[in-house]
Amino acid sequence: MHDATNLTTLMRDKAAFADKINQLLDLLAIDCADLTLDHVAIRTHDIAVTESLAIELASQGKLCSEAIVNGRPIHIYALERALTIGQWQTLWVELPFPNHKRYSRQSWEHVEFVLPCTTADMAGLKQALQRAFPGIFARAEQQHTITVKCSEPCVKGERLPNPTIAFKYQDVCVKFHPFPLAEIIASEASD
Fold first, then answer.
1. Domains contained in the chain, number
2. Residue 2 included in any domain
3. 1 domain-assigned
4. Closest by Cα among 23, 4, 169, 142 to 86
């Protein structure tokens, strides 16, 4: 994968990104073929690159959210045409604006799958993940190259909880959360 400076270079990296995601899924010994790929995310550390990508993404779809999450702006775009990442497709792209972190490269960073659960809190999400993929946490722990992070990002006005479990390998990540972005964004807008 290369350092992406615009949408064209990002698109060139899609196949390599999908390969890395599939490597991570293989290490975890899980198959996400039946899950909905909710969105794909880009990571940048250069504000000029981020702003340029924001303009290009807006020309390919609609800016649906400009929320502040954990102190920084995150833009969510609904594209006019689905983006294919490996065997999955999604209309949604997340573009976080840079904070203090510097990444080894600016490009695709994670995919996030919807994993419905009976209770939409961290305990419920963990149980749903364990039911869907028995032994996933033990396998991740055995792989010293995989890190697991549980978080509960909070956006002002958001009415749906958004617990997230992330599995990171090298410079890519697979995440799971209980609600599609479209529902989360709608919850922010409702009175």
1. 1
2. no
3. no
4. 23
CB 39 within 8 A of CB 96: no
Write out the residue range of the structural domain in which residue 48 sits.
Answer: 7-189
Which segments in the chain show pLDDT lower than 70?
1-2, 154-158, 188-191
Structure confidence at residue 108 (pLDDT): 95
Using one digit for the tens of pLDDT, what is the confidence trace for 80-130?
999 999 999 999 999 999 988 888 889 999 999 999 888 889 999 999 999
Residue 80, amino acid: E
Q: Does 178 fall in a domain?
A: yes
**Residue that is written with structure tokens 């573009």 in the block:** 95
User: Is 32 part of any domain?
Assistant: yes
Element (H, E) at 145: none
Radius of gyration of the chain (CA): 16
Residue 133 CA: distances (Å) to CA of 29, 113, 129: 8, 13, 6
Give the CATH number for residue 153. Answer: 3.10.180.10
Q: Are strands 61-69 and 72-85 parallel, antiparallel or unpaired?
A: antiparallel
User: Strand pairing partners for 68?
Assistant: 73
Instruction: Yes or no: say if 85 and 37 are a contact pair by the CB < 8 Å rule.
Output: yes
Check: pTM over 0.70? Answer yes or no: yes
